[in-house]
Design a protein that fits this description.
This protein is of the alpha/beta class. It is 39% helix and 16% strand. Strands 1-9-18-17-16-15-14-13-10-11-12 form an eleven-stranded mixed sheet, with helices on both faces. Strand 13 (319-322), helix 10 and strand 14 (345-347) form a beta-alpha-beta unit. The longest helix is centred in the C-terminal third of the chain and has 20 residues, at 456-475. The two termini are 17 Å apart. The model has no long low-confidence stretch (mean pLDDT 94).
């Protein structure tokens, strides 16, 4: 896993090096500038054939920009800096003085500046520590950058983005690429910040940086390879787990089929899907599943009779998934009984709505419970507004998981997966997942990984990663707008094998 570090953590690491006498602040600034410039040249090989404009703020991010200015100038580049202040202090002041001595071109930014489309703009206005709304001439400078038509590269983070939660502090630079220092920051992976960052490149600026413990991570393919057990020659269906899926209703038979198919594709051994009686015929399209009709002929919803029948299936299973497409669950006691089994379980969609309407069910949550809400469902579970959850999804997932001793997969373009002490940000996927059925597929994948005996937090994180990676595999053949959830199911097996064998 790749550790993510907040602006406060980065400040502490900087201080550890500087205050401990390992390196001076100005030397560290020059290291950062040099590493950033190397990355920019890799991004834009013809940089020295283009006019370069560097926007410099007052703080250390502006100091980084001034060091880049000096380095480009002495190398013969056509470069100038547009300054947002008449005075610099500290390490940024030393960078300014060196730029003056080197004869660099620097002028104060004036609204109305225009740049050619061939230009390269380097954004060094604000770093990751910004936590207040922008004011003064900064919004005008950012507007000038965004409307320039030039190639835009931000230093450490696009100016205007909060480095901790990705929120926009009034306005923000829309970069084509961002060169960030030493470690990734959450604000580069969380939306809307992620959509402003463009391609993100992490550069090392000193090998002596500490790497402290962190509560936030993002995943790599190697994590999936190490977590998912390799198939053995003597494997059999029982060894790969017995999964029970409670799903589907009159208008949502597809949810049951997609959840079950994705569980099978991911590797669950025996997969049972219990559905209201009249949905049984739908499973002729999925003969590999063991479909169990519940209730009486003519029933196509989760009546009390269907819930009674489902209870008889709970024993002897390794994992239970409840919720996809169930609609109204007439007897909430079914969800209580699922939780009381104490085995790993996945609650999605209508099971979560049932919990939200019968809040005493929350007291039955345990460490094997994985919930997969979108922000609307999370709002109903917690009572928080959707906007509050969206403004800090990491906090929302961490706090709920800690309070309820469960694993939360807060779904979104960047999903936040938490067990109450750690949080994984998953960035795999594409806009093709923004369609009905994707959540059902995710629930099936996580169910299968739990059946394969993955620890719940890892199963949830790996499931989110594989859903997105499978969508990316499907996108190799289909455009995002043409892609449907079934295409992702078809790609799951290929994706799992790829991540196990690469």
């Amino acid at each position: 896993m790749i550790g993510l570090y907040t602006p406060e953590q980065m400040r502490e690491m900087d201080s550890f090096l500087i205050d401990g006498g390992t390196i001076s602040g100005y030397a560290l600034m020059n290291n950062a500038a040099s590493a950033a410039l190397d990355a920019i040249i890799r991004l834009i090989p013809d940089l020295y054939q283009r006019p370069v404009v560097i926007f410099c703020g007052k703080g250390n991010n502006g100091g980084d920009g001034l060091c880049i200015l000096r380095m480009l100038h002495v190398s013969g580049c056509d470069v100038k800096a547009l300054l947002m202040t008449d005075s610099f202090s500290g390490d940024a002041g030393m960078a300014f003085d060196d730029a003056v001595r080197s004869g660099c071109s620097m002028t104060r930014f004036a609204p109305g500046e225009r740049f050619g489309e061939n230009a390269v703009i380097i954004d060094a206005l604000f770093g990751t520590g910004l936590n207040r709304e922008l004011h003064g001439t900064f919004p005008e400078a950012i507007e000038a950058i965004n409307l320039s038509g030039a190639r835009i590269v931000s230093i450490d983070i696009p100016s205007g983005i909060n480095g901790e939660n990705g929120q926009i502090m009034g306005c923000a630079v829309r970069a084509h690429a961002t060169v960030t220092f030493q470690y990734l920051k959450p604000g580069l992976l969380l939306f809307p910040g992620r959509s402003y960052a463009g391609r993100v490149i992490t550069v090392s600026i000193d090998d002596r940086y500490p790497k402290p413990e962190t509560a936030m991570y993002t995943l790599e393919a190697g994590d999936i390879r190490s977590w998912i057990p390799e198939q053995q020659a003597d494997d059999y269906k029982g060894k790969n787990g017995k999964a029970l899926i409670l799903a589907g209703s009159r208008n949502y038979a597809g949810a049951a089929l997609m959840c079950t198919a994705s569980a099978l594709r991911t590797g669950a051994g025996l997969t049972y899907c219990a559905v209201p009686h009249d949905l049984k015929t739908q499973f002729s399209a999925l003969p590999e599943a063991i479909s169990v009709p519940l209730g009486l002929e003519g029933e196509d919803s989760w009546t009390a009779e269907c819930c009674r029948g489902a209870r008889e299936l709970l024993l002897g299973k390794d994992v239970i998934c409840a919720g996809p497409g169930m609609g109204r669950i007439e007897d909430p006691g079914l969800i209580a009984d699922v939780l009381k089994t104490g085995i790993p379980c996945v609650l999605d969609a209508d099971a979560l709505n049932c919990v939200a309407a019968n809040r005493e069910l929350l007291d039955l949550f345990h460490s094997g419970v994985v919930i997969t809400p979108h922000v609307g469902e999370m709002s109903r579970l917690t009572g928080e507004s959707i906007s509050d959850i969206q403004s800090d999804p990491v906090r929302a997932a961490l706090v709920f998981s800690k309070h309820r001793n469960c694993v939360t997969v807060l779904k979104g373009a960047t999903s936040c997966i938490s067990n109450g002490s750690q949080c994984v940000l998953n960035t795999t996927g594409n806009p093709g997942l923004a369609k009905g059925g994707s959540g059902d597929v995710l629930s099936g994948i996580i169910t299968a990984l739990l059946a394969l005996k993955l620890e719940p937090f890892r199963a949830a994180a790996a499931g989110s990663y594989l859903l997105g990676a499978s969508a990316e595999t499907a996108l190799e053949l289909l455009k995002a707008r043409a892609m449907i959830a079934g295409d992702v199911i078809s790609a799951i097996r290929e994706t799992v094998e790829k991540h196990l064998n690469d």
